[in-house]
Write a structure and sequence with these properties.
This protein is an all-alpha fold. 77% of the residues lie in helices and 0% in strands. The longest helix is centred in the middle third of the chain and has 28 residues, at 119-146.
């Protein structure tokens, strides 16, 4: 389940958390261009001066939001990967659900606007992928090999690098438009295809059984 905006920013000071929560919702629902400090001040019933006390500008605010979303995603992934009661198929589907819940609110339009108007923020999202994908999927693949659910000849380092480049290309705004898929749909289809080639027959059987349950 995706974190609620209030939970995402619970570590922030109350006023800053309120600003970030409203900006997060507006950004993901309406896109980068539609989010302005004027609009945000009106929605919150605050003066622009109050907004600027806490954030030097829109891009600074969004940068902090991306940081919070990234930390939350990593923390929820760690909970799934560290749970000793979960089987490998359960960990795999748990990772998919966590990532899917985050991507469910992400639109190609928002990504395209960030790419065009706020390239530094877009590059930050890319950097988070670069950092998290090798950690999360490398760990998952290694655990799958140890459990006999992933083919033993698979090179975890190569597989995670392959996945990193694949998903980076697939979630490009132009690619999403051509496929007419949301980021979440793209992730789920790509993961199914990716792990189909990695799983042993027993691993595939357990994974399909878990999906059907």
């Amino acid at each position: 389940m995706a974190d609620l905006p209030d939970a995402l920013f619970s570590a922030e000071a109350p006023v800053a958390a309120r600003i970030m929560s409203a900006a997060h919702q507006h950004l993901f629902e309406h896109g980068y261009s539609a989010l302005t400090m004027d609009v945000l001040a009106h929605e919150l019933g605050m003066s622009k001066k109050t907004l600027y006390v806490h954030f030097a500008g829109k891009d600074v605010l969004i940068d902090r939001i991306i940081d919070a979303v990234g930390k939350s995603l990593r923390a929820r992934m760690d909970v799934v990967l560290s749970d000793p009661t979960l089987t490998f198929p359960q960990r795999l589907t748990g990772v998919i659900q966590v990532a899917g819940a985050t991507l469910a609110r992400t639109s190609p339009t928002m990504l395209r606007e960030l790419q065009r108007f706020a390239p530094a923020i877009y590059q930050k999202i890319e950097a988070l992928r670069q950092k998290n994908i090798p950690y999360i999927f490398g760990r998952l693949i290694r655990e799958g090999i140890a459990d006999g659910k992933v083919r033993p000849e698979v090179d975890p380092t190569f597989a995670t690098e392959f996945w990193l480049h694949a998903i980076r290309g697939l979630v490009q705004p132009d690619t999403l438009d051509r496929m007419q898929l949301t980021p979440r749909q793209t992730l789920e289809r790509a993961l199914n295809l990716f792990f189909s080639g990695l799983l042993t027959p027993a691993g595939r059987k357990d994974y399909e059984k878990h999906l059907a349950s």
